């Protein structure tokens, strides 16, 4: 993400730990906010040692997990269980625009630092509480993590192999989408209300509820016929050949996202199979029907005849929504995300264009 100064001057107190809250305040910091991360004395945020490398451990520094999530923030330590710590936080809150915490609901109230107390000393304060199941309700006091929240929200059931076995994702959907992104969205909305003369407000972010709200495709299926899509049985989870994953000759994977007919037609021509172009869901092909299943099989056999790099070289320039499935290391070095690689690609493209002009396009 690129940094901006849109939130320059915004003062944020960050009492969160681990992933969702720190990711939210990181995004605010990237937009120019002054974020003060407040940790407890002693060990502090548990993410300091979570996934810590041996080199970081020997050097006595926080691991990459902590460093990535908390870059661009100021840091301090406060013991909120002490009178002195609470007094300092009250003074900070009096001058702050936003306070974000991720304790279990009720903890801040028991410390005498809940929203009802802080709003008295700062009526414009936007107070955001991120929790697993929300500040109220029968599940509010339950502990949980990303896996639990996506399980409740009906998302984990959608992340399944063709034999219906759920897949354990290494991307924290509820933490990042349900927690961090939802918190940023709701905080910015509350700040807009404050900017127009309104008072601050309590922003209650339930990671489970926000994740459930984003489970759109499954909810569409329920609205249509009362049943959620099964693996390989719907438009976007493997039921059509034009939107699927195919194994290549070198045991890699190619992502084909030619959902619209124009992209599918371009792809079929590139594959030298123009006869496939009319076999598309928008032209009446039954999703997960016999023809779709047969064409998925035929596509798989064709894609398996070449290594990934050859398919990328052939198909990506055609702009038909085909891409490689990259490893995390490959993504880190890709021009999309790596500035040095991007500059090298631009320089190569410029050189090719210059050479093409000199030769008259031959």
UniProtKB/TrEMBL annotation:
Keywords, in A-Z order: Transferase
InterPro entries, per the entry: CoA-transferase_III, CoA-Trfase_fam_III, CoA-Trfase_III_dom3_sf, CoA-Trfase_III_dom_1_sf
Any one Gene Ontology molecular-function term assigned to this protein's record: transferase activity
Keyword Transferase belongs to the record: yes
Domain of life where this protein originates: Bacteria
Gene3D superfamilies with a match to the protein in the record: Crotonobetainyl-coa:carnitine coa-transferase, domain 1, formyl-coa transferase, domain 3
Annotated protein name in UniProt: Crotonobetainyl-CoA:carnitine CoA-transferase CaiB
Source lineage: Bacteria, Pseudomonadati, Pseudomonadota, Betaproteobacteria, Burkholderiales
């Amino acid at each position: 993400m690129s940094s901006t100064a849109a939130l320059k001057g915004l003062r944020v107190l960050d009492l969160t730990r681990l992933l969702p809250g720190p990711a939210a305040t990181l995004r605010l910091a990237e937009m120019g906010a002054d974020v003060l991360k407040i940790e407890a004395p002693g060990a502090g945020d548990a993410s300091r040692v979570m996934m810590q490398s041996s080199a970081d451990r020997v050097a006595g520094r926080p691991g990459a997990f902590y460093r990535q999530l908390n870059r661009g923030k100021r840091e301090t330590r406060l013991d909120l269980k002490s009178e002195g710590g609470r007094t300092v936080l009250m003074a900070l809150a009096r001058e702050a625009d936003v306070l974000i915490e991720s304790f279990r609901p009720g903890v801040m109230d028991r410390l005498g630092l809940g929203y009802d107390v802080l709003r008295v000393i700062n009526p414009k304060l936007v107070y955001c509480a991120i929790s697993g199941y929300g500040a109220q309700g029968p599940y509010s006091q339950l502990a949980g993590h990303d896996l639990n929240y996506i399980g409740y929200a009906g998302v984990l059931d959608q992340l399944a192999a063709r034999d219906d076995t759920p897949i354990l994702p290494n991307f924290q959907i509820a933490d990042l989408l349900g927690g961090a992104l939802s918190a940023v969205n709701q905080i910015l909305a509350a700040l807009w209300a404050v900017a127009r003369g309104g008072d601050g407000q309590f922003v209650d972010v339930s990671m489970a509820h926000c994740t459930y709200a984003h489970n759109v495709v499954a909810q569409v299926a329920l609205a249509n016929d009362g049943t959620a899509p099964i693996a390989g049985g719907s438009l976007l989870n493997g039921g059509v050949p034009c939107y699927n994953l195919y194994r290549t000759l070198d045991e890699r994977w190619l992502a084909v996202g030619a959902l619209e007919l124009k992209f599918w037609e371009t792809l079929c021509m590139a594959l030298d199979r123009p006869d496939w172009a009319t076999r598309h869901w928008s032209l009446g092909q039954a999703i997960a029907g016999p023809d779709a299943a047969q064409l998925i099989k035929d596509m798989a056999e064709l894609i398996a005849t070449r290594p990934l790099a050859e398919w990328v070289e052939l198909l990506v320039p055609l702009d038909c929504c085909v891409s490689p499935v990259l490893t995390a290391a490959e993504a880190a070095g890709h021009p999309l995300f790596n500035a040095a690689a991007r500059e090298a690609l631009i320089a190569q493209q410029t050189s090719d264009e210059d050479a093409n002009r000199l030769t008259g396009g031959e």
